[in-house]
Every structure is written in structure tokens, then in C-alpha cells.
Design a protein that fits this description.
alpha/beta, Uracil-DNA Glycosylase, subunit E, six-stranded mixed beta sheet, Uracil-DNA_glycosylase-like
């Protein structure tokens, strides 16, 4: 089992406190699901018992940490668990009762910037992130990778094109044995009901690629 020492300040595990009343969870609206997890979310809390439930075959990758991330210490696993205003509870509500619950988590680039439009990511970021996940965090060779937002996903597409020399838009992004998926980011600025991240949207994406 991995210990906290293996994790940088940008890493964590996709597990949070869960609400008690989650019966018929998939039938709830996105707002109801978000509210359930918002009520139990604890900022700056990571339970070390959660390390026993890591899934090495699922990975969630964001583009970069927000400004609050500057205050996170290495080995704390508080990334994605640090601030209520970052809406991390939305991510928890989205992946709850899916195979991504317990997955490894990290960001492509260490640049602290809450405005993601000011941050650029490229294939070098993808290469170094994959190396870190595999060699330091024991990611499986066939782990499914879930990108949060278009910019993180586009960096993987560029990396895939550079590896193979070709890439068609309609093709799924596959790097080695890794299938790379994309969902909208859970930022509070993305509140449009048609584009916001939700549990149902993730399930639809997983079903499209026969991911259980």
C-alpha cells in the first residue's frame, strides 16, 4: 500500500466523506447530488484510512491547481480536498458510485492559477505526469484516465498525435493501454445545465466506451 510520502502536493485520492442518505442516488438531480456532498464536505481534511481503498486502474487529471493550492503541503493529499470555494464537492458528487471513486488524482502542470485560461499545458506536461503516476504512484499500465476539462484533454490529444504521427478527431484518445476520457470541469463558473459536470454525464461517457 502506498503511504502519504509517495504523494506530492498536487496529488490525492478521489475519496471524500459521503452522506448517509444516498438511496436511489442516480435518480437525484445534479443539484440534489451536489447539495448532499456539499453538506458533508470538510475542507483541509484527508482521512488516511482512505489510502487502503486506492484504485490504481482509474486516474483523474486536472489542468492545474488554483491559487489556494499554494498553501497545500506535500504528502498531505489535500489537493482536491482543500477549499470549499473550489467546489471539490461537485467532483465527489459526480464520481460517487462509479469506478473512479478511489482513483488517483493529480494536475498536469504545477502552475498555481485559478484562471485556467492563463495556463498553458503541452505534451511535456503529459509525459512527466504519466511518468510520475506510473513510477511513483503505481498507476496500472491499462488505467483509464479521466480528464477534467477541454484543455487537459487537448494536451493528451497532442501527446497522442506526437507519439503516432497521426490523430483523427473522431478517434478515442488511447496512449499505450490507457483510454483517455473527458468530462467538463467542475468549476463554479461552469453552471450551464448543458455543459456542467454531473454524475449522469460521467455515466454516459463511461457507457459510451464500455467502462464499468
Amino acid at each position: 500500500m502506498l503511504t502519504k510520502n509517495a504523494f506530492t502536493k498536487f496529488d490525492s485520492i478521489a475519496i471524500w466523506d459521503t452522506p448517509n442518505n444516498c438511496h436511489n442516488y442516480a435518480d437525484l438531480t445534479p443539484n440534489q447530488q451536489d447539495e448532499l456532498f456539499k453538506t458533508v464536505f470538510q475542507a483541509k481534511v484527508f482521512n488516511e484510512e482512505w489510502l487502503k481503498n486506492i484504485r490504481y486502474d482509474r486516474v483523474i487529471i486536472g489542468q492545474n491547481p488554483g491559487n489556494d493550492g499554494k498553501d497545500i503541503h506535500s504528502n498531505s493529499l489535500l489537493s482536491f480536498h482543500f477549499s470549499t470555494k473550489s467546489n471539490d464537492h461537485r467532483l465527489a458528487a459526480t464520481i460517487y458510485q462509479t469506478s473512479f471513486w478511489g482513483g488517483l488524482m493529480t494536475d498536469l502542470t504545477p502552475e498555481f492559477e485559478s484562471n485556467s485560461e492563463l495556463v498553458n499545458t503541452d505534451s511535456k506536461d503529459v509525459d512527466s505526469t504519466l511518468h510520475h503516476l506510473k513510477h511513483d504512484l503505481h498507476m496500472q499500465d491499462d488505467a483509464v484516465i479521466l480528464c477534467l476539462g477541454t484543455k487537459a484533454y487537448d494536451a493528451f490529444k497532442t501527446y497522442r498525435k506526437e507519439l503516432s504521427g497521426t490523430y483523427k478527431k473522431q478517434e478515442p484518445v488511447i496512449i499505450g493501454k490507457h483510454l483517455v476520457l473527458k468530462v467538463p470541469h467542475y468549476s463554479g463558473s461552469n453552471n450551464n445545465k448543458n455543459t456542467r459536470l454531473s454524475h449522469a454525464k460521467l455515466l454516459k461517457t463511461m457507457q459510451q466506451f464500455n467502462i464499468i
